[in-house]
Amino acid sequence: VQLVESGGGLVQAGGSRRLSCAASGLSFSNYVMGWFRQAPGKEREIVASIRWKDGRTYYQDSVKGRFTISRDNAENTVALQMNSLKPEDTAVYFCAAGLYGAPWEDWGQGTQVTVSS
User: Which residues contact 78 (CB under 8 A, 6 or more apart)?
Assistant: First the structure.
């Protein structure tokens, strides 16, 4: 399994950023894909997830209405569209994959998102 994130960078508060995760080596129909983040000094937390089979999504309360997770079946990618970014969204963002109902087992290398005030 290989997960490769891209799209991180520096953005001003109120701006937008789109992260992408290219996935390979998965039996996609059985997997859930997720985006996590980890800020300095804090634990890693889930931001959003999507069930590949039916597109069912989950969002952390703090990002509801601002972030959107989506999947592209043809390209085997998962995207995280982030709008109305806030300085507290600053973190390393990780793509993750896991079988539905099981612990997260595969992780990307992470991509830094920095939101300036």
Answer: 20, 21, 23, 33, 35, 50, 69, 70, 71, 72, 95
